[in-house]
Amino acid sequence: MDNRWQDAEAEPYAKSDLDMRVYTSRLLGSDPDLVLHGGGNTSVKAKQKNIFGEEENILFVKGSGWDLKTIEAPGFSSAKLDILLKLAELPSMSDLDMTRELKASLTEPSGPSPSVEAILHALIPLKFVDHTHTDAVVAISNTPGGEETLKTIYGDSVLILPYEMPGFVLARQVYELTRSLDWNSLEGIILLHHGLFTFSDSAKAAYNAMISLVNKAEEHLKAAGALKKIAEADYVPEQTDFIRLSEARKRVSTLQGFPMLAHWKQDSLSTGYACLENIDSIATRGPVTPDHTLQTKRVAAIFEDDPEPGIASFASEYEAYFERHNSGSLTCLDPAPRFAVWKNKGCVVFGTNANKTRVVSDILDHTIKAVQWGETLGGWQALPEKE
After folding, report:
1. Rounded CA separation 110/221 (Å)
2. I need a labelling partner for 28 at 20 to 30 A (CA). Which of 135, 172, 194, 314 fits?
3. Per-residue 3-state assignment (H helix, E strand, C coil) for 90-109
């Protein structure tokens, strides 16, 4: 992985910590192997005077709805650091309460809502905190013995934590496990099946640490023979395929309750993926990181020659999955798939507009790559269903 830091480019941003935060956030966001379409988040701690002229410790953290690739200073929420640290001490808190308290902690109420990982960022006592969903690190964690492999790669320089859904439970986990930690002894934190955190009082050092740790994971993948493309294949479409695709689009649109676009990915990589003998199993093991489910749903639909049975099966299994995990307070979303593997023919992506379709397509490309790495390392595996 290339280090994109350029001293000449960074110099105009050196006038403030927040400006420097913008610069390195864009560096991270510009690399799709680290961040895809709104994923990841960054923060910086700084002082700011309130209306009384008193200096307060502020956490500027990426706001919801902003993309690291193009973020500007207004894209960072400004939350009172002391309040966030007090929230971390609470024994429990619902997601609804956390969302309300995070919003109440802002010094600029009209600003974007803070990331759900704001409390976690607050707990790390270094000025700059970077968080990505690096393909290489997460791909290793998504294989049998992944945690042990990561320990072998990084030793004691990285703290490795089990998966928790982003939010208060994750923040509380970090709070409990780092209360007596010597932060200067760490280069980063890995959240299994989720991503990587690096941190420093220097923006450049935090960014360099991210690139260095990811490169170590990539070196391991390369040594294991995993850094290669999945078997490629080609398919010549038949007229009946287009008729069936239009029927599939109509059926998915009905399930979603809104007209959907359908993009048939016929590139050799997507087609090669669809030709794998065990694709039924691989494509239904889960995403690279649960963060992707916001765009893709949990698994792919599987299409035979006629996509209709695969769409019906996906919808029924989606509703059954929801019922197994519904505590009674949840509302089921639409059961329409967002992408499908059309056996031996490629992949199909569905979206309500061209941008959403492109987002899912990009995530699928990275999923195919990470799955290849995982299969080489002993078998791609997602989180257990209960997660």
Report:
1. 45
2. 172
3. CCCCCHHHHHHHHHHCECCC
